[in-house]
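Annex B, item 7. Sequence and structure tokens for protein A, then protein B.
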Amino acid sequence: MDIDEVYNIIGKNIRFYRMNNLKYGYLSQESLSRICMVSISIIRNMEAKRKNNIINLVAINNIAKALDVPLYKFFLKDS
């Protein structure tokens, strides 16, 4: 698996769990940003799969906690 695929998988999964969240229902990027205390630009960049950005594991962990989703699920290819 190359780095482009990793970015695609993480971005797709963050978007999926943000939009289909059991705890909150649908969340906008802005709402998720407020809940997890992660910059909205970080969330946008991750979901947009911009490969020139560094994957921020602390941000991904904060997003996972806010969405009440186990961290490993953001790395699964077919979730």
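Protein B:
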Amino acid sequence: MAVDVLMTAALLFLMGYQFWGDTVHEWVGAGMFVLFLVHHILNGNWHKNLFRGKYPPMRIFLTVIDVLTLFSMIAQMYSGIVLSRHVFAFLPIESGLAFARRLHILGSYWGFLLMSLHLGLHWNVVLGVIKRKFPAAFHGFRYLSFGAGLAVALYGLWVFVKRDFTTYMLLQSEFVFMDYEEAKIQFYLEYLSLMGTCIFISHYMGKILQPLKRKEGSR
């Protein structure tokens, strides 16, 4: 869980490139790469079991999100290394910069949404921690969290439109607009809300698909 928390914090931080500049962005990105490797080592059973067992709807949904997240992370890491001017500047890379720039935009915007969806599919772990810590208040918290989560999700949808995510996800522009005068707190609250939208969608999508898994298992 510590690795997942650090990866989530790094993901949010990296989206605010305009606030920190090249050097910090690259070092945090390199740290994200290390955390990514550790995450996959700790979850090695996922790779071992990928082609084993049945694939009910819930597992299909989970696996599609996980595989797409993996591809987006690989795209970000590769393109980040190619574009690096500091951390990986020692590497003799002199070509492929234009392709790497496009790939980095795609990987960043798709990756942010996919990693947030991935987080939502494992949100029960977070709820489990809350339940263990505050068992008496948990049932009331569930209803409160749904209302708060829905409000955040709706606001996050507005952020998705406001921030022109589709423009960058479809690579309709190769230059990302950055407002260097924007308040950091506003920027990160909006991106946190958009992350909340993805968590809300995938968490409740999982609740819809989970009963289908049980039905199929009982046949």
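Comment on protein B: The mean pLDDT is 87.
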